[in-house]
UniProtKB/TrEMBL annotation:
Oligomer status and interactors: Component of the ribosome quality control complex (RQC).
Source domain of life: Eukaryota
A GO CC term attached to the entry: RQC complex
Pathway the protein takes part in: Protein modification; protein ubiquitination
Protein name in the entry: E3 ubiquitin-protein ligase listerin
Domain E3 ubiquitin-protein ligase listerin HEAT repeat region intervals: 1311-1536
């Protein structure tokens, strides 16, 4: 009652559980019923696919499995099984496949007609594979397979039909197909008969398995394939074989169901039926002998068929019926059945199928019955009327193919009838006038687009009559036609008022088309074939094409007379109507027909009025009045006048030309000029003289002005170009002054092309065109070189907007000046050619000085120079060197070379690379702007770019399609191989590369540093690539020249030698050195020492054989300090150094600054050697060496401090750099020994005695230098000193600075000076101050830490106060700089070496110092720092500015780019004095500072973030989450893992994937878990903390609040919060008495402390324990003292 009904267990797919009885029942009912031959008919095919148990057990098991799949009802299963079957057949052996053949026909016969298209396709694919595999072995089973296979070739599913056809072709060769069909024709015909005559949609399919729609579709498909198969059978089999099977064929054809297919609703069934009728009429008419009535009635009843698939078959059957069925008209009523249908079809224009129906009209009327002949006029009148009505139907007019079909049928039928009835001339004339002329009139007057097709057909008819003039009837028809057509033209033209909407011009156009059709042969369509032949066959067999103009003289004479009569009508109409509409068509008539005949006939007409008339009177009486009449004047009148020129006398021509100059209209004058410039008139001397007249010149110049202001019509543009052509004598047709004026105007336009943005492209193109005309062998510089220079300057400009001047036009410009330069240098004298190229080179220099040094521009200049050199090379190949020198001689650029080399020499000297013990370095007196330095190195790249270019580089760019531009080997020749003294250019480039290497090492914070670096790298790559492929002679010349220059100039030329032999021409550098120094004179000791310094990495003492003085030995030892086993050399050199010291100790210790250069350099080299030994050979350092070098260091440093006023002398700078290096190397070595705990007596002496004095002296020197350099405007020459002195910052002892000392300035002075340097315009000095501040960070933190710990604040407050002034100053400037940038939307990119960069960089460096202080401080101190920043409102400004300075790609968040952009947030950028300070450095620093701010002051950043609006808040959150959060979370977790051993009772479990920390605190056996979850946007989002087990009562909530406060509000780390929580728990449980029942502090179940105490013994118990005690003991006494509780 009320229970749920029991439900059977669910089974797969909700099927019922298996049951053997029901399975047997289903098997019994699932057998298909007998459905005839096409289904399962006899024992051979009596197999149901639904019963897989009948499959032969002898087959391969794999095949049985597949056949069972195929036997399934599900189509998908069948398809998969068939696909597997095809693969199995393809991969199996022939014998295995042969074993399948007995079974396969049963499957194939059923599956070939399956309802699923893909099943049939897969079935035929399997069958195809079987056929390919077994080949002839299929013969025994052919009769079982052939019937469905044969008809499946016409399956309605094309892929299935295609595969079946391919299988059939692969099975039977073409010559065997008929035999195979004959062999199996009984099976085929029985199959066809059964499917066509017996089967229905219901019997052909098992309706239990398929739907009614599927069954109907299958039946239609079988019908179509069987009907088409029957057609194929009739076509392939011979008549004799058809007769042999006449009974079977008769059984099909005689059946009434067969004839009902003509009325089938399926179009393809009907089409197949009529195709069978056509084939039967042609191949087996004997089968239709007694069925004429059926054939004729079925065919003619369907003449009105509309379906495009059926229609061709019906009309083909109709034609074959009337031609093969005897007395066919006796089977139907012609008047009631045939003619009404025919008239309807003709009236409707074939019902849109004219192209199919109308070609059959002519054969059809040729088989008309005799009864129609009795009413010929009426019949043909109706026929042509209906035919013409059909041509006007919309469907016919809209389709060209339909119109052509109608026109062709119309004229062909007319031609046939006239030819047949030519004896009845009145009847023929009636047809011509009533139908032919009417059709022409309709075409002329109506707006029809396809009238030409009718004209062509009529022309064919007229030409046919003209070829048969021997027939009187046809001749009369031709004459009648021409007379009446002319009358038609006249009546139509002069009776326009009677014709509504008459368009004279359209009428004339159609008239001309008609006459052109009469003149030309209408070509019939040809079947074109492709045939390949050899060149010889082509040349021998090729014949000139025959024109399509008729050559029949009689016909042409008739046609010319006819044309003249028409043209006379045009002249009459023009004169009477005062309209120029027909003049254009008159001109066309005159030139298309006999021109002379026209003028002679017109002259004869004039003579009839005036016997003295001549041809010139045609101009004066007819053409000149037209020319002077505004309504009639037009271009074609002028064209007619110039046509008349050919037949006039000289005097008449001159008179006519003079009248042209008086025409009032400029437009008319332009027509006259255009005709005069055309061929052959431009060869006439009279015309040439006329073209040089003043009015013509002014007119052409005015066109130039129109071109420039974009007011020139296209016609005048063409005329302008035509007027600037040469005649046969090479002279320009225009006057010279006119040409010069045109050139001047165009030159000015292209030089100021930006002022003519609309017409710049046109003007440039015109200028390029004119260039090719005025710079020729005949003219040379007749028209000056201004246009050439202007075009060249335009080509030199790579920034031309393609919207203003297109690429195609620029190509024209380039080729024009190249061609002109080649021609001029070839024909001018050498001096004139050099002068011209100097002007071109000046343009290059000018454009180069204006460029921004981008690589694309320099490559463009290289390309232009190379193209110019190639242009010169084509004309003077042997004199290219002088032209090359002109193009690469840039005085403005080379003026910077001396300054750059002097500066780099000083750099090499100060850093210790370049020894100058004897020869003093000259002071640098000049100064060069940074842009000029960059241009110098860019020009070097340009030079090597030109030298390493090949002729093919420019030629290929100039014309990729020019096959005649020169031999391929010549195209690959480098320019440097065809000029003289190339070794000078190559060696100078190597020298400049070495200078550039030094410059880039030191001066990396100058403007355009990136450009200099880029071009230096590219130059090196190009020069190495170019010189490696040079020949031996050139390499030898380079070697000789480099050696000579090295002997003279030393250092950088020696480095060039080293570069050449190390990278370009690799050789043993030891041998190179020995050969080099062997040739150095003894007097040039410094050259040898410099070579030793340069080759030092490859030398040993065995290679250095020269004898040197003491300082020379010192330099050699320093150079070879890396060598092993040089103790002897070290001892010898130290002995010499000791002797030098003993000789004059004060001088040695630099007690006096008034020592010579040579003496000072001795000290410097000694210090440098000591420094190198300290760094590389410390193991060789003994006590004597220590005492000599390091103790002297104290004096050297002290004396440098005393002589600090000499800081701007190279002598003092070299000494100071050497002292700094010795101090740095010594301190580094001592620190290393101390870190490695290597026992050494020097360490204590250094730390306790020596370092303090040297350290303090060097810091005071820094203080002085910082002050002095901060005041200088230009410190370029001091940058080497600054870089060398920077090394000291890593060895500053801040504790010594902050220790009170009278000898050392207070630390505040250093702080103040460093802050001043931060805003210096030179990045190197900014970094000087930053590095010093960074070194002082630990000491500054200690000051504040002591104040906090002793609760005794410093009198100046926190250290942050010391930075406040400079921070506020830079912040205000940065705020004003960024105030226009919208936060989160706009990003500011600060360009280097600008005031904006200086203050932004200083601002960020200051913040990095402040954040470093936060990082080094304790939690309590960091809280005070954060509070100070918050009170001063500085941090909020910082964060806002950071997001305005952050790179745009960072703000535009993209997961794909996030990894590549994450690096700046994770790692602090390398901020070194030797690094380049650019915009990218600023952006990286911004990212790092934001990341550092989040790490050090998360609470402050979180507070700022929560105050932002929604959109900006999302941007900040995305940036933080994408780039910073993951790193900070990982950092927090790693810190916890590293420090968890410090907890006694707490264990930490870190889950990085979930960003969780589980802190487990254990007391006795009880545990409490604190789960901390970091949000994805940590630290912006708050940390989530929860504690699942409550212990310690209400205190736990207080501790959790303390944890959150520490982490969320006090910038504490997770570690700080956990330490606080752990300490609270430790204090809570420290000393707590355990429960005396469970003996635990915490209850294992309730996690409570013992709270209930006994009043007697005072022992405490857990309440749960006490309750259990009372309950189990049944007492209420204390468990300890037994007193009542």
């Amino acid at each position: 009652m009320g229970g749920k009904h029991k439900v059977a267990n669910r089974t797969k797919n909700n099927a019922r559980p298996s049951n053997s009885g029901r399975s047997a029942e289903l098997l019994g009912t699932s057998m298909p019923q007998f459905v005839g031959f096409s289904g399962v008919k006899d024992s051979a095919f009596g197999f149901s696919l639904s019963n897989p148990d009948e499959i032969e057990t002898s087959l391969d098991p794999n095949i049985q499995v597949i056949l069972k799949k195929i036997a399934k009802k599900d189509s998908t299963t069948k398809i998969k099984g068939l696909q597997e079957f095809a693969e199995l057949v393809k991969e199996s052996e022939v014998d295995i496949v042969k074993s399948i053949l007995p079974v396969w026909p049963r499957f194939y016969n059923i599956l070939a007609t399956d309802t699923d298209n893909h099943v049939r396709e897969a079935t035929h694919n399997v069958h195809h594979q079987i056929v390919l595999k077994v080949k002839r072995n299929i013969a025994p089973y052919l009769k079982q397979l052939i019937a469905p296979w044969f008809t499946s070739q016409y399956d309605t599913y094309p892929p299935a039909a295609s595969i079946a056809s391919q299988a059939f072709m692969d099975a039977f060769p073409p010559n065997k197909i008929q035999e195979a069909i004959v062999f199996c024709q009984e099976e085929i015909l029985n199959y066809l008969s059964d499917n066509l005559l017996v089967q229905t949609a219901q019997t052909l399919s098992n309706l239990k398995n398929v739907s009614a729609e599927e069954a109907e579709a299958k039946y239609e498909r079988v019908l179509i394939s069987c009907l088409q198969g029957y057609c194929l059978y009739l076509e392939k089999v011979s008549i004799e074989q058809i007769k042999n099977a006449i009974d079977l064929n008769n059984s099909i054809v005689s059946n009434s169901k067969f004839w009902k297919f003509s009325k089938s609703k399926v179009a393809r069934v009907r089409a197949s039926f009529f195709k069978i009728i056509s084939v039967l009429c042609q191949k087996a008419p004997f089968l239709l002998e007694e069925k004429g009535s059926n054939v004729v009635n079925n065919v003619f009843n369907n003449l009105e068929e509309h379906d495009a698939v059926v229609l061709p078959q019906v009309w083909e059957a109709a034609l074959l019926t009337v031609s093969n069925i005897k007395d066919w008209w006796t089977y139907i009523n012609i008047e009631k059945l045939f003619l009404p249908k025919l008239w309807k079809i003709l009236k409707q224009g074939g019902q849109g199928n004219a192209s199919v129906i109308y070609p059959s009209l002519l054969p059809l009327i040729s088989y008309l019955p005799p009864t129609i002949e009795e009413t010929v006029p009426q019949f043909y009148s109706l026929f042509f009327e209906n035919l013409w009505l059909g041509s006007k139907q919309k469907s016919t007019v809209a389709s060209r193919s339909e119109s052509v079909a109608v026109a062709t049928a119309f004229v062909e039928c007319l031609q046939y009838i006239i030819l047949k009835k030519q004896s009845d001339l009145p009847f023929c004339k009636t047809l011509i006038k009533t139908h032919l002329l009417a059709s022409i009139e309709w075409c002329l007057l109506e707006d029809s687009t396809n009238y030409k097709s009718l004209f062509n057909q009529i022309a064919s008819l007229i030409q046919h009559w003209s070829r048969n003039l021997d027939s009187d009837g046809l001749k009369a028809c031709l004459e009648f036609f021409l007379e009446n057509v002319l009358d038609l033209f006249r009546d139509t033209l002069f009776n326009v008022k009677e014709i509504p909407c008459f368009d004279v011009e359209s009428f004339a156009v159609k008239q001309l088309d008609f006459m052109q059709s009469l003149k030309c042969i209408s070509k019939s369509k040809k079947q074109y074939k492709v045939k390949f032949c050899t060149d010889s066959e082509s040349s021998s067999k090729q014949k000139p094409e025959v024109g399509n103009v008729i050559n029949d003289k009689n016909y042409l004479d008739r046609l010319n007379i006819f044309a003249y009569n028409v043209s006379e009508l045009y002249v009459q109409y023009t004169t009477e109507k005062k309209s120029n509409i027909l003049i254009k068509h008159l001109y066309s008539l005159v030139i298309n027909f006999d021109t002379e005949c026209f003028f002679l006939a017109m002259s004869e007409r004039l003579k009839s009025k005036n016997p003295d008339s001549t041809l010139a009177d045609i101009y004066s009486n007819v053409l000149q009045p037209w020319l002077n009449t505004q309504e009639l004047c037009c271009k074609h009148v002028v064209s007619l006048i110039f046509l008349l020129f050919e037949f006039l006398q000289t005097e008449d021509k001159s008179a006519i030309l003079n009248t042209f100059l008086k025409v009032p209209s400029d437009e008319c004058l332009s027509w006259c000029i255009s005709e005069a410039l055309s061929h052959p008139h431009n060869k006439n001397p009279l015309v040439k003289e006329w073209l040089r007249s003043e009015r013509i010149s002014k007119f052409i110049i005015s066109i130039t002005d129109l071109i420039i202001v974009d007011g020139c019509p296209p016609e005048l543009g063409v005329l302008f170009k035509l007027s600037l052509v040469e005649d046969e004598n090479g002279e320009i047709l225009l006057h010279k002054e006119a040409v010069l004026s045109i050139v001047s105007k165009l030159t000015l336009a292209i030089e100021n092309y930006t002022d003519h943005t609309i017409t710049a492209d046109t003007c440039t193109s015109q200028a390029a065109y004119i260039s090719a005309i005025i710079y020729t062998e005949n003219l040379l510089l007749t028209y000056k070189d201004t246009l050439l220079l202007a075009l060249f300057r335009l080509s030199c400009n790579p920034e031309i907007d393609n919207e203003i001047v297109s690429q195609e036009t620029m190509y024209e410009v380039t080729t024009s000046w190249q061609d002109a330069l080649t021609l001029l240098t070839k024909n001018l004298s050498k001096e004139e050619s050099l002068s011209l190229c100097s002007k071109l080179a000046g343009i290059i220099e000018d454009e180069f000085s204006k460029s921004d040094l981008s690589e694309s521009k320099l490559n463009h200049f290289v390309k232009i120079i190379v193209m110019a050199l190639i242009a010169v090379y084509k004309s003077v190949p042997l004199g290219l060197s002088e032209f090359f020198e002109i193009f690469l001689r840039n005085e403005a650029v080379h003026s910077s070379q001396g300054f750059i080399e002097e500066l780099c020499t000083l750099t090499e000297f100060l850093n210790g690379n370049l020894p100058r013990p004897h020869k003093e370095i000259d002071p640098i007196t000049t100064n060069v702007e940074n842009i000029d330095v960059a241009r110098y190195f860019a020009w070097i790249y340009l030079k090597i770019g030109v030298l390493s270019s090949s002729f093919g580089d420019a030629i290929d760019d100039e014309d990729d399609d020019d096959d005649d531009s020169g031999d391929e080997m010549e195209r690959q020749v480098l320019i440097l191989t065809v000029i003289n003294q190339v070794e000078v250019y190559a060696s100078q480039i190597l020298h400049d590369l070495c200078v550039g290497e030094t410059y880039l090492t030191t001066f990396n914070n100058v403007v355009h540093y990136d450009a200099i670096l880029h071009y230096n790298v590219l130059t090196e790559m190009k020069v190495i690539e170019a010189l490696k492929v040079c020949d031996k002679i050139l390499k030898s010349n380079i070697t000789i020249y480099l050696n000579d220059m090295s002997m003279k100039n030393g250092w950088y030329w020696i480095k060039a030698v080293y570069l050449y032999y190390s990278k370009i021409q690799p050789q043993d550098l030891c041998s190179v050195y020995e050969d080099f120094v062997r040739n150095i004179p003894d007097s040039e000791v410094e050259i040898t020492l410099q070579a030793t310094r340069i080759f030092k990495d490859h030398l040993t003492y065995d290679n250095v054989q020269n004898k040197f003085d003491a300082v020379g030995d010192i330099i050699v030892l320093r150079s070879l300090i890396r060598c092993e086993e040089i103790d002897v050399q070290i001892a010898e050199v130290f002995t010499k150094m000791v002797n030098i010291r003993i000789a004059d100790i004060p001088k040695f210790l630099y007690n006096s600054s008034l020592i010579s250069w040579q003496d000072c350099q001795v000290i410097v080299e000694i210090i440098r050697l000591c420094s190198c030994m300290m760094k590389s050979k410390f193991q060789c350092f003994n006590q004597k060496h220590w005492d000599f070098g390091i103790i002297s260091l104290v004096s050297w440093a002290s004396n440098c401090l005393k002589a600090k006023v000499l800081f701007d002398t190279y002598q003092y700078q070299s000494l100071l750099c050497a002292v700094v290096n010795l101090y740095v190397n010594t301190d580094a070595q001592m620190r290393h020994l101390k870190e490695q705990k290597i026992p050494c007596s020097y360490i204590d002496e250094w730390e306790e005695i020596l370092v303090e004095s040297t350290h303090n002296d060097l810091l005071q020197i820094w203080l002085y230098l910082a002050d002095q350099l901060n005041r200088k405007q230009n410190i370029t020459t001091f940058l080497p000193l600054i870089q060398e002195f920077t090394k000291i910052f890593s060895h500053v002892y801040c504790e010594r600075v902050f220790k009170a000392s009278e000898s050392l300035p207070k630390w505040s002075k250093y702080l103040k000076q460093s802050c001043l340097l931060l805003t210096n315009s030179q990045p190197s000095l900014q970094l000087w101050g930053y590095k010093m501040l960074l070194a002082f960070v630990p000491g500054l933190v200690n000051i504040d830490a002591e104040a906090v710990s002793t609760n005794n604040p410093h009198k100046m407050g926190l250290i942050f106060e010391q930075f406040k002034e400079k921070l506020v100053e830079t912040q205000d400037i940065v705020n004003s700089l960024l105030m226009e940038f919208k936060l989160g939307d706009d990003s500011c990119r600060v360009e280097p070496l600008t005031d904006s960069f200086t203050y932004t960089f200083a601002y960020l460096l200051l913040w990095d110092i402040l954040l470093s202080l936060c990082e080094k401080s304790s939690t309590e101190l960091r809280f005070q720092y954060a509070d100070w920043l918050k009170n001063e409102d500085l941090l909020e400004n910082l964060l806002n500015n950071l997001f305005r300075l952050m790179p745009a790609e960072v703000l535009q968040f993209s997961e794909r780019k996030s990894k590549s952009l994450m690096e700046p947030f994770l790692r602090k950028p390398d901020i070194s004095v030797t690094d380049t300070c650019d915009s990218e450095k600023i952006e990286n620093l911004v990212c790092w500072i934001y990341s550092s701010t989040l790490a050090q002051l998360p609470a402050v950043v979180r507070h700022w973030w929560t105050s932002l609006d929604g959109k900006l808040s999302q941007i900040v959150e995305k940036v933080t989450q994408c780039y910073v959060s993951t790193h900070l979370v990982t950092q927090e977790l790693n810190e916890l893992l590293a420090c968890q051993s410090k907890f006694k009772n707490m264990v930490l479990n870190v889950l990085p994937g979930a960003r969780e920390i589980i802190a487990i605190y254990t007391v006795d056996e009880a545990q409490v878990e604190l789960i901390i979850t970091l949000p994805p946007n940590y630290p912006l989002g708050c940390v989530f903390v929860r504690c699942d087990k409550q212990i310690a009562g209400a205190s736990l909530k207080q501790w959790l609040l303390q944890f959150k406060k520490c982490v969320v509000h006090q910038n504490g780390r997770i570690w700080d919060g956990l330490s606080l929580w752990n300490n609270n728990l430790d204090k809570k449980f420290d000393g707590v008495e355990e429960c005396y029942i469970c003996f635990a502090v915490l209850h294992p179940g309730t996690y409570q402390l013992p709270k209930l105490s006994c009043q007697t013994c005072k022992k405490k118990f857990h309440s749960a324990c006490l309750y259990k005690w009372f309950r189990t003991s049944y007492k209420s006494s204390c468990p300890v003292c037994r007193n009542l509780f």
